[in-house]
Automatic annotation (TrEMBL):
<dbReference type="GO" id="GO:0016491">
    <property type="term" value="F:oxidoreductase activity"/>
</dbReference>
<feature type="binding site">
    <location>
        <position position="424"/>
    </location>
    <ligand>
        <name>FAD</name>
    </ligand>
</feature>
<dbReference type="InterPro" id="IPR036188">
    <property type="entry name" value="FAD/NAD-bd_sf"/>
</dbReference>
<comment type="similarity">
    <text>Belongs to the flavin monoamine oxidase family.</text>
</comment>
<feature type="binding site">
    <location>
        <begin position="35"/>
        <end position="36"/>
    </location>
    <ligand>
        <name>FAD</name>
    </ligand>
</feature>
<feature type="domain" description="Amine oxidase">
    <location>
        <begin position="15"/>
        <end position="447"/>
    </location>
</feature>
<protein>
    <submittedName>
        <fullName>Monoamine oxidase</fullName>
    </submittedName>
</protein>
<dbReference type="InterPro" id="IPR050703">
    <property type="entry name" value="Flavin_MAO"/>
</dbReference>
<keyword id="KW-0560">Oxidoreductase</keyword>
<dbReference type="InterPro" id="IPR001613">
    <property type="entry name" value="Flavin_amine_oxidase"/>
</dbReference>
<feature type="binding site">
    <location>
        <position position="236"/>
    </location>
    <ligand>
        <name>FAD</name>
    </ligand>
</feature>
<dbReference type="Pfam" id="PF01593">
    <property type="entry name" value="Amino_oxidase"/>
</dbReference>
<dbReference type="InterPro" id="IPR002937">
    <property type="entry name" value="Amino_oxidase"/>
</dbReference>
């Protein structure tokens, strides 16, 4: 077993861990970044193809207000490009297609469209009452944490088509059934991004733009600067702390440091053995904030043919094997890429089918929406995050009912010499890459302030 002694050890090389390690190194601290996978990026994963084009298999989009991801891109000279939004989006409800522009499909029945608009307004007003640093202290926290998203939608959405679309769109953010997610958590996560129109929107919202070259164009230069302090294929088994420091161990690596930053999803953090045991509330939080199921499928064509047909590539169909689609073509527009996102119970069901049947079902849906050209892609690439050993599921761990009010205070609180990062711990842009970066910068600042050493200059 190799022994390493450094100032700080960071566990997990997704954006949270990469950022924490980078900022600590830039502040003159020695660091070891330990990653279980044989790659960096965590819940982002950019595949560069032989022709130089690239596919983001995981997190991909950025939007206004996400200042920390933009700051990293500026730092490493990575440009952005706008998401393609020209043309009409499409909703499919009960087999009928509705084309529209904007956030709400006004081409639906006036009653359904009005109901959608009213729910959006109500959600926005509720989000304004959530204290981002302590959502459990909201005036109605106990009430909202006692009910699920499904319960709230059932009580407040009177149109069946509007209900089905909202349940698909909102519950999809948490890659779980609406019955699994606390309404307080939904409001907190939405509020952290500025409200429902940002979370569920595209233009000037959560899917406004993308880095040229994909997320890998950002995380690769970060790793290059971290250099040989990065240790891949080292799943951490245990973390022991004492009065002088911590010891982080994998099968063949032992890192001794003053403090550790654990920057992995909560369910994955629960698989590490801690000595002594973590405080009860933190331990229970690990048990109670799971991830959900999500499949992200890139369907490639010679060109984005839907654009010529007046379509943006954005579509939604509740309970469909291609629940959500969006144009995921590169900045050059070649090849054309339709990204299919399937979440929650539908993703679990789709994952049980043989690969050939999954592909057949997805392409049939795309053909029904976009025409016969959709039936013959040049490539078809699946990423099933539900079975990623070191992700544990979807893009964001979620809180079921009762969890935030009981255990939320443990989300960011250090446990002795163990500190926590990850997008779930960010009070701003919780659930996005930007939130992960913010959490890494916070954790880097936190450990240095505890030790009375120079704080990382970039930490916000």
């Amino acid at each position: 077993m190799a022994d390493i002694e450094v100032d700080y050890c960071v566990v997990g090389a997704g954006f949270a861990g990469l950022t924490a390690a980078l900022r600590l190194k830039q502040a003159g601290q020695s660091v070891a970044l330990v990653e279980a996978r044989d790659r960096i990026g965590g819940r982002t994963f950019t595949e560069v193809r032989e022709d130089g084009s690239w596919i983001d298999r995981g997190g991909a989009w950025i939007g206004p207000g996400q200042d920390r991801i933009y700051a990293l891109m500026d730092e490493f000279g990575v440009k952005s490009y706008k998401q393609y939004t020209d043309g009409e989006a499409m909703m499919v409800v009960d087999g009928k297609q509705y084309r529209y522009k904007g956030t709400i499909p006004l081409t639906m029945s006036p009653w359904a469209a009005a109901n959608l608009g009213a729910v959006f307004v109500e959600l926005g007003e509720m989000c304004k009452t959530i204290p981002l640093d302590a959502p459990w202290e909201a005036k109605k926290a106990a009430k909202w944490d006692s009910i699920s998203l499904a319960k709230w939608l059932g009580d407040n959405t009177l149109s069946t088509p509007a209900h089905d679309l909202l349940e698909t769109a909102i519950a999809g953010c948490y890659t779980s059934a609406a019955s699994e997610v606390s309404m307080l958590f939904v409001l907190y996560q939405m509020a952290s991004g500025g409200g429902p129109r940002f979370v569920l929107g595209v233009k000037d919202a959560a899917e406004d733009a993308r880095p040229v070259g994909g997320m890998g164009a950002v995380y690769r230069p970060m790793a290059a600067e971290i250099g040989d302090a990065l240790h891949l294929s080292q799943p951490v088994r245990d973390i022991a702390q004492d009065g002088d420091g911590v010891t982080v161990r994998s099968a063949d690596l032992a890192v001794r440091a003053r403090r550790a930053i654990v920057a992995v999803p909560l369910a994955i953090a629960s698989q590490i053995v801690y000595e002594p045991l973590l405080p009860m509330d933190r331990s229970f939080l690990h048990q109670r904030m799971p991830s959900g199921a999500v499949m992200k499928i890139a369907v490639l064509y010679d060109e984005p043919f839907w654009r010529a047909a007046g379509l943006s590539g954005q579509s939604a169909a509740p309970d469909s094997p291609a629940t959500i689609t969006i144009d995921a073509s590169t900045d050059t527009g070649r090849p054309g890429v339709l990204c299919v996102i399937v979440e929650g119970p539908i993703a679990r069901k789709l994952g049980t089918l043989p690969e050939a049947e999954r592909r057949k079902a997805v392409l049939a849906e795309l053909t029904a929406r976009f025409g016969n050209k959709a039936a013959s892609p040049v490539d078809y690439i699946e990423q099933n995050w539900s079975v990623e050993r070191y992700s544990g599921g979807g893009m964001l761990s979620h809180a079921p009912t009762g969890v935030l009010t009981q255990f939320g205070r443990a989300l960011r609180k250090p446990c002795g010499r163990i500190h926590w990062a990850g997008t779930e711990s960010s009070s701003v842009m919780c659930g996005w890459v930007d939130g992960a970066i913010r959490s890494g910068e916070r954790a880097a600042r936190e450990v240095t302030e505890h030790d009375g050493v120079l704080s990382p200059a970039h930490a916000q």
